Amino acid sequence: MKLPDLTELAMRNLRESVLRNFLTTIGISVGVASLVAMLSLGIGLQQLASRRLMKSGLFDTVVVTSRRDLRSFGRDEDRNAPVPADSRVLDEPTRIEIEHLPNVLEANPDIRFITELRYDDKPHLTTVAALPASAKSNDAFESVRGHFFSSDTAPEAILQKTFAEELLGKTPKPGLDETNVGELAAPLLGKELTMRYAQRDAGQNQPARNGPDKASNSGEDSLGGAAYSVVSKEQKLRIVGVADLDPESMRGPTRARVFLPLKLAESLHVMQPTDLREISRAASDQPVYSSLSVRVKNPAQIKNIEEAIKKMGFNTFSILDATRSLQQFFAVLDLFLGIFGSLALAVASIGIVNTLVMAILERRREIGIMKAIGASDGDVQKLFFAEAGAMGILGGIVGVALGWAIGQAINLGTNVYLKRQSLPPEHFWAVPWWLVGSAIVFAFLVSLAAGLYPAGRAARLDPVQALRYE
Amino acid sequence: MAGRSISLQNSHNPRPAIRAEQLCRHYRMGETLIRAVDGVTLEVRSGEFVALLGSSGSGKSSVLNLIAGLDRPTSGSVVVQERDLAKLSREDLAKYRLHTVGMVFQSFNLIPTMTLAENVELPMRFAEIDRGKRDSLAREALARVGLQARMNHRPSELSGGEQQRAALARALINRPQLLLADEPTGNLDSRTGTEIMNMVLEFNRQLGMTVVMVTHERALAERYAERLIFLADGKLIGDESNSGVRAVSDRPSGGRR
After folding, report:
1. Which residues of chain A make contact with B125, given a CB cutoff of 8 A?
2. Of A35, A326, A386, B246, which one has the greatest count of Cβ atoms within 10 A?
């Protein structure tokens, strides 16, 4: 029998005992709905997590240090690499070179130093770090009170919450609710801070060096002419924002309590730890960075970029391993959610078997007639398959819609709850198209599998017996 | 079709339409072995109208089922149109039922959920005949049995005679050479029965179809069949040509359609 005939006869048979087939189809729908609901929760959570992690700027960042930096991360140090003294320094040309690598979004120097800030004529010692303009989209600074830096060179500062508390002389009492950031920000925003810092001043009589020449060839002119002075300077900063950051969980460039715009920080020529080591270099105007933060376009390419930078002769570090185990965790989570979701579908498939076996008993005579007038075993078998398949596809479509609706409802309900807890709403539900398609195909295949036994049984029915039966 | 040309020259054709040899169909029912058909040997010529007679349980229906390819012999052979049915695969046997045999039953066996037109169309679906052709063929077949006005009715809305006529239309839709009828008038009153039998006779004469009819009514058999075969306890106990059959004298001189 041809497919259109099969479909037509199958649909006709399904309509004949409409209630039973409807109930069976609903069973499949519920199964598919639970599968879709479970998986879309898993997928949604994964998307939420990776969205968050992307924003946190940890997973798309490679930290580059010079091999001259002896406190390197050292895990996979290349033993064949040149000795530290011979390897390259992280200077501006290197930064540009790295920035031009494929798939690199930007490469920013990490500037961090400990210095004294005066507020209200009281000194406060703390860590200051520079933030590139791109940090504005960073999750950590999204919830900043006040605003982000107005420009990359503006003399402005963003304070970390605990530093703001320190400035105001508040100490959080243990056990009590954390101080509201808004409360802290209100008296501080727009106020001025005075930062005292040590400026590295290049030697006046030293001609400026240029180019990424090797440190080793600085030979005879090295120490003799190399000289720089350290000058105490002050910089006034306006407080523009207070960020609710947890210093314990902060890593990389955000591990500080006061933040400055990157270009401003660069222009200050603050003494850096590298300056002590690179005496000959520090005397020049060319800055030498202790480390660079390289942001990549796509975290998937982190490994390639790390390789490329390593080839250039630097040490690299990224939290790639962490993402990998996170992905593994979600794969396992999806698997478990999928298995639980499939259970309902498995139960529903038993419903199909039951319905079709009942249909055979009921349509025994009809099967006998069809065989007597020339239907082959295959025709009868295909007819039952078509009925199972039609129930599967219908159930799949309805189930996907149902699963989507359940997801929306739960999402909505949770967001209402989040709102009551004054937390921002989250979209932790995702039904991608591939899930829609594969859920329907899966329902179809499960239904066909369920139809296997009844269809085989119907096909083997002895027509003489079936016709004798009145 | 080949079958039709054979039937046209049946008097010259030595090959029989049906030949059964030492045909047996035994089956077990609990401890006892039931010999439904037990060593039947018979031949039916092309275009012949044969009645299988016997009381209930004589094995006449079992013989018909074996000829129809609905059942397989335990031993012996049944050869129809030079095909040994015992040796055909299940698939080929289904094709044989589809193209070579048309069957009518005592209980009509129309599918109750389908209209007459759909019932008649069903064998054409199995034969994978083009959708476009099927409709007109079904209409034509129902018109031939006088049911064109009823084609969109379901069997339950029709009288027994009408149902049997629809069953005849369905049996003939794939132009088989063999018409097998199992007590075709058993559920009908005598007037409707006669109407159906006249139709069967017409198909036998005009289309040259070989007809094998199972009945327990000797009078009916004598009135229509050229030959009467008697069965009892699964064995053949008599085979006589019906010289006095009204049908023979009525037969038009070789005219077909």
Report:
1. 1-2, 5, 9
2. A35
* Domain assignment of residue B60, yes or no: no
Distance CA(A252)–CA(A317), nearest Å, equals 11
Nearest CA in chain B to A467: B109
- A2/B95 touch (CB, cutoff 8 Å), yes or no: no
**Residue A50 CB-half CA count within 13 A:** 18
Contacts of residue B169, defined as CB under 8 A and 6 or more positions apart, other chains included, come to B116, B120, B138, B141, B142, B144, B145, B147
| Alpha-helical segments (H) within A111-173 | 139-142, 161-168
> How many structural domains is chain B composed of?
1
Q: Looking at A120-273, which runs of residues are DSSP E strands?
A: 122-131, 145-146, 156-160, 192-202, 228-243, 258-261
Banded pLDDT at A226 (limits 50, 70, 90): low
List, as ranges, residues 186-215 from B with C-beta within 8 Å of A.
none
Residues 6+ apart with CB under 8 A from A444: A389, A392, A393, A396
A369, A461, A469: best to mutate for the B interface, most B CBs within 10 A? A369
Classify A194 as helix, strand or coil: strand
Q: Do B53 and B216 meet the contact criterion of CB atoms below 8 Å apart? A: yes
Complex ipTM, two decimals?
A: 0.88
pLDDT value at position A213? Answer: 44
Stated as kind and residue range, the H or E segment containing B75 is strand B75-80
pTM of the predicted structure, to 2 decimals: 0.68
Dihedral (CA of A89, A91, A96, A99) sign: positive
Nearest C-alpha neighbor of A51 from the set A170, A138, A130: A138
Q: Is residue B242 part of a domain?
A: no
Q: Of the candidates A143, A117, A139, which has an alpha carbon nearest to the alpha carbon of residue A254?
A: A139
Contacts of B40 (CB under 8 A, 6+ apart): B20, B22, B23, B24, B59, B63, B76, B231, B234, B235, B236
Terminal CA-to-CA distance of chain A, rounded, Å? Answer: 27
Among chain B residues, the shortest Cα distance to A464 is held by B70
Is B164 domain-assigned?
yes
User: CA angle at residue A260 from A259 to A263, to 5 degrees?
Assistant: 145
- CA distance linking residue A103 with residue A299, whole number of Å: 10
Contacts of A41 (CB under 8 A, 6+ apart): A337, A407, A410, A428, A429
The whole-angstrom separation of Cα A171 and Cα B202 is 112
First-to-last C-alpha distance (Å) of chain B: 15
Mean pLDDT of the A333-343 span: 86
- Alpha carbon distance B153, A49 (integer Å): 63
Q: Summarize pLDDT for A248-279 with one digit per residue, the tens.
A: 545 555 577 888 888 888 888 887 766 666 65
